[in-house]
Amino acid sequence: MPLDKHSESFDYIVVGAGSAGCVLADRLTVSGRHRVLLLEAGGHDRNIWIHIPLGYGKLFSNAKVNWLYSSEPEPELDNRAIIQPRGKVLGGSSSINGLLYVRGQAADYDHWRQLGNTGWSFEDVLPYFRRAEDQQRGADALHGAGGPLAVSDVCEPHPLCEAFIAAAEQAGFPRNDDFNGKTQEGAGYFQLTARNGRRCSTAVGYLRAARRRSNLAIVPHAHASRILFAGRRAVGIEYLRDGKTFTAHANGEVIVAGGAFNSPQLLQLSGLGPAQLLSSLGIEVIADMPGVGADLQDHLQVRMQYRCTEPITMNDVIHSWRHRVGAGIRYCLFRKGLLAVGAGYAGGFFRTSPGAATPDVQVHFIIFSGDTSGAPLHPFPGFIASVCQLRPESRGFVRIKSADPRMPPAIQPRYLSSRHDCDTVVAGMKLLRRIMRQPAMRRYVAEERAPDPACTSDGDLLAFARATGSTVFHPTSTCRMGPDATAVVDERLRVHGIERLRIVDGSVMPALVSGNTNAAIVMIGEKGADLILQDAGAGAPVEVRASG
Ligand SMILES: Cc1cc2nc3c(=O)[nH]c(=O)nc-3n(C[C@H](O)[C@H](O)[C@H](O)COP(=O)(O)OP(=O)(O)OC[C@H]3O[C@@H](n4cnc5c(N)ncnc54)[C@H](O)[C@@H]3O)c2cc1C
After folding, report:
1. CA of 266, closest atom in ligand 1
2. Is the pTM here over 0.90, yes or no?
3. Is the pLDDT of residue 548 over 80?
């Protein structure tokens, strides 16, 4: 008999059906032994633009699938408020993201281990990446095949991307056909989390099969407002739905998977956070935890815009009805062409100085141009190459401004608040310019639109970054994992000092990874599920081994 979503108690309650939450819902229910409630503030992923990769541009400002957050004015970015989109739909941000599949560097995870997080070195987490993956190119020592998360080569060669890759080679960087292979360094095409030209969010990859199980109850449009405690033990969740308040009880654990903004918000609303802040808002303090909402990290990108000499960019397709129809037909018939392209087409990972042990900047090469992310495309041929520092030192915070769970928290990444970050961003811009001025690329550059070619000094370049820089949408680390006094969860993702409460999502990253964050968070979901089942004495439900 199916579970009664609104009255029963469950073994596990998972808050948030995002990149990690969908993985948990699947892995915790596969044995049939556990009854799981999955609460999601957003609705079903029925919007057609979720599933067509290029449609991601249409989801930036759609309140039906997006929390539409914004940062507080950023002091080091000329006091501009920076948009902070987050998925509010089954699949979470994996339903609205740019689809790029990049795991980061082995050194990122070895660093997590060095910070005291046993079980999180690259060697430890690689089996979970492999278990998750359904790599179109097949399995090998670094890749998995047959897993729920489809990874494919959607992008066909494009003359502009070929020129970019050749220009990088002319500038002394290698061509790289696999950013998740032995080395990340070099220029090449991105792989996408897509199958047959359609997005593979975690809702598609994991939840579609799991939702048919009678031991999983999924409640969409359910906004968790508070974690319920008995002393220092989490016992359930209070949530809002259709203007009513419901409670659900967990015999096993409550698992928070609301993402880097909403997870610390929910903990703070529930009495776990900086005591002074909570008391000032009239919230009873269960535990004074200054680390909840601290250490916000994000990737800042600086977009350099170019007018193209030839009408071969996406701008030209979008502004011609004949090309649009052609692209539509090609996509419908073959699932190929411009509609199958994600946020970046080609790109690369580069070291800004020989002293850097591994790449310290990422470039996204995009064959369209607009003034900002999500803005209308320019009415002329254009393209963009953006530079982003991979391991920023800048740290910000997420803090509730109200005890009302429906009010957004204050989000303050404090981009470019470290000297090292400013220097790396400027070095990255210079490096990118060097690539763009190589012969292979020069023939396509009609004009450097932004920054202006006269913008050359370090001071001018930094001023440009401060005036135009924006997020690459990778906030993490607001409920950081670690053994130290301000860490929020331990290496098994249990909240320090609290029983039966775990956090499993991007907020637990000890440090931001050197790449796009979805792949790493799916891995965290996979490993988190095993930790939960091991602690329940149920053992690992699925072998930690990808097929092939
Ligand atoms: C526009 C955009 C583009 C991106 N592009 C890429 C890319 O190309 N490649 C890449 O690797 N990464 C990309 N990312 C980042 C990546 O998608 C995210 O880091 C990742 O999806 C976050 O996973 P998560 O599980 O931590 O949180 P989410 O996936 O955001 O999941 C959190 C879920 O919890 C729900 N929730 C939150 N609070 C509550 C509550 N109180 N009650 C109930 N439910 C709640 C949310 O609605 C959401 O569904 C992008 C992100 C965005 C927004």
Report:
1. 41
2. yes
3. no
